[in-house]
């Protein structure tokens, strides 16, 4: 007899134990095959032959449950694979053995009585309404207590709560079927003393519809009726929509309110297919008198109890041709003679705005002062240059210009400020170099200026006053000025001036040959 044991948590295919029959033969005569021929565990176990070790391997065939059956018994047979016919009379070449297998208890997670649960609850039910109850138990012999909880990942809005001890599920918020018709949550069951052992079951909750929504227009209708419409002429068909379930929705009933049941302009006909037609009751409409009519329509559903709502249909009067095609629904065409249209007024205002913009731009440009590109003489800071447009007659010509204009008024006082640089300190001219009054000789005036410039340490390396010292550099005739005549010792021949014509006669007489000058003297 072989004694074996296996846990109830073992999976099918797992090895339970081994048996071995001894055969003194060798080779193929010693090969043994094993099989189960009897026992109450034939459906739960199986045996195979390991030809390398000549052993029978007992394996689990189905899952076990300790609480259901705690032990099994098997009758295993071992037989030769090859039997020599010469020795068949010595048989039988086989043997049997009894294998007893004990099932060991394992710590199993809780088990729900159902693989899934489906509950129903009415919409708008009060908070705390019981939805249903789930139940799980511990399959182990200890039968530990179970605690329940809801997987919050499946109930993010927290519509439900569960009693941790008895598994009752209740609502904590009112439910609206029109928002969510089904709620699918998951419930956990864990052992009180072994938190790692848990089970999970899906729970589907159906929200049962109640008639809490009245029917309304299926769309935002706007009807048009011709001015020349005939009596009993149908011009629009309407339908309704209800958010409730079909049991509390259609069929819809259309009617006019009792106070306008005898409306002189329009009437309503229920088509009994959840639609209704609106008809003209009289002939002839005028846009000038009234271009818009509002018709209230009552719609009721087939729920218990039935609900109804009043919806308003806008009907606009339009101009149509003879075939009933719309031409215009605007009453503005009749008042064009009395005033301007909106488009014309907009055009006039646009023209006025454009004219105003042009006038403002013109005035702005007129007022804007542009800076001149050429600086006039009186604004030029270089005031030490004076321009003359007449010719002088030399030293004897004292009336052509006033020598005082060449003098800087500041120079009379002995102080000549510089205007081209910023001096580091003020220069005081030497005593005795003060220029004479207006009757001073030009040569003395120029010499005075030269000495001031030479003795002024703040003066730049150039001086505009040098233009009075020499004129005509590069000219064949040399200098025509008499400014250097007092300081030069060279004798120049000016006889060629006699050939220049009457305009230069005065110069020719002044600067002629020396002999001629002596004779004249």
Automatic annotation (TrEMBL):
Family annotation (CDD domains): Cadherin_repeat
Stored Pfam families: CADH_Y-type_LIR (PF01049), Cadherin (PF00028)
GO function terms (MF aspect): beta-catenin binding; cadherin binding; calcium ion binding
InterPro entries given in the database record: Cadherin, Cadherin-like_dom, Cadherin-like_sf, Cadherin_CS, Cadherin_Y-type_LIR, Catenin-bd_sf
Gene Ontology BP term (one): adherens junction organization
Domain Cadherin: 2-112, 113-217, 217-334
Localization per Swiss-Prot or TrEMBL: Cell membrane
SUPFAM superfamilies attached to this UniProt entry: Cadherin-like
Keywords (A to Z) from UniProt: Calcium, Cell adhesion, Cell membrane, Cleavage on pair of basic residues, Glycoprotein, Membrane, Metal-binding, Repeat, Signal, Transmembrane, Transmembrane helix
Transmembrane segments: 344-365
GO cellular component, as recorded: adherens junction; catenin complex
Topology in membrane: Single-pass type I membrane protein
Role noted for this protein: Cadherins are calcium-dependent cell adhesion proteins.
Protein name (Swiss-Prot/TrEMBL): CAD11 protein
Organism: Emberiza fucata
Gene: Cdh11
């Amino acid at each position: 007899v072989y004694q074996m044991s296996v846990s109830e948590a073992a999976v099918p295919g797992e090895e339970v134990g081994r048996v071995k029959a001894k055969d003194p033969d060798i080779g193929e005569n010693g090969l043994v095959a094993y099989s189960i021929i009897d026992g109450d565990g034939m459906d739960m176990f199986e045996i195979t032959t390991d030809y390398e070790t000549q052993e029978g391997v007992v394996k689990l065939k189905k899952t076990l449950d300790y609480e259901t059956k705690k032990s099994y018994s098997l009758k295993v047979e071992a037989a030769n694979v090859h039997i020599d016919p010469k020795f068949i009379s010595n048989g039988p070449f086989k043997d049997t053995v009894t294998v007893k297998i004990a099932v060991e208890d394992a710590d199993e997670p809780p088990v729900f009585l159902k693989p899934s649960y489906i509950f129903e609850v009415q919409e708008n039910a009060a908070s705390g309404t019981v939805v249903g109850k789930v139940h799980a138990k511990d399959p182990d012999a200890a039968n530990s207590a179970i605690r329940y909880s809801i997987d919050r990942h499946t109930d993010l809005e927290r519509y439900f709560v569960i009693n941790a001890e008895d598994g009752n599920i209740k609502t904590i918020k009112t439910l609206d079927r029109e928002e969510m018709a089904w709620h699918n949550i998951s419930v956990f069951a864990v052992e009180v003393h072994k938190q790692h052992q848990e089970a999970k079951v899906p729970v589907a909750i159906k929200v049962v519809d109640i008639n809490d929504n009245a029917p309304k227009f299926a769309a935002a209708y706007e009807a048009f009726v011709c001015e020349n419409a005939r009596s009993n002429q149908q011009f629009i068909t309407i339908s309704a929509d209800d958010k409730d379930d079909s049991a509390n929705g259609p069929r819809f009933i259309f009617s006019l309110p009792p106070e306008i049941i005898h409306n002189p302009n329009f009437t309503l006909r229920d088509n009994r297919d959840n639609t209704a037609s609106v008809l003209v009751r009289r002939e002839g409409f005028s846009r000038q008198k009234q271009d818009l009519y509002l018709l209230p329509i009552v719609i009721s559903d087939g729920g218990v109890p039935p609900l109804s709502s009043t919806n308003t249909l806008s009907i606009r009067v339009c101009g149509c041709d003879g075939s009933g095609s719309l031409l215009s629904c605007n009453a503005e065409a009749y008042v064009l003679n009395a005033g301007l249209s909106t488009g014309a007024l907009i055009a006039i205002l646009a023209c006025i705005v454009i004219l105003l913009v042009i006038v403002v731009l013109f005035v702005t440009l007129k007022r804007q002062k542009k800076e001149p590109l050429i600086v006039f003489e009186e604004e030029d800071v270089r005031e030490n240059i004076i321009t003359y447009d007449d010719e002088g007659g030399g030293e004897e010509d004292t009336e052509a210009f006033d020598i005082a204009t060449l003098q800087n008024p500041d120079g009379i006082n002995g102080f000549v400020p510089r205007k081209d640089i910023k001096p580091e300190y003020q220069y005081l001219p030497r005593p005795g170099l003060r220029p004479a009054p207006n009757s001073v000789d030009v040569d003395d005036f120029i010499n005075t200026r030269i000495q001031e410039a030479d003795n002024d340490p703040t003066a730049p390396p150039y001086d505009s006053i040098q233009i009075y010292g020499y004129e005509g550099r590069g000219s064949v005739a040399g200098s025509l000025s008499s400014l250097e005549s007092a300081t030069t010792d060279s004798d120049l021949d000016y006889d060629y001036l006699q050939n220049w014509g009457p305009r230069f006669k005065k110069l020719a007489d002044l600067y002629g040959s020396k002999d001629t000058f002596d004779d004249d003297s």
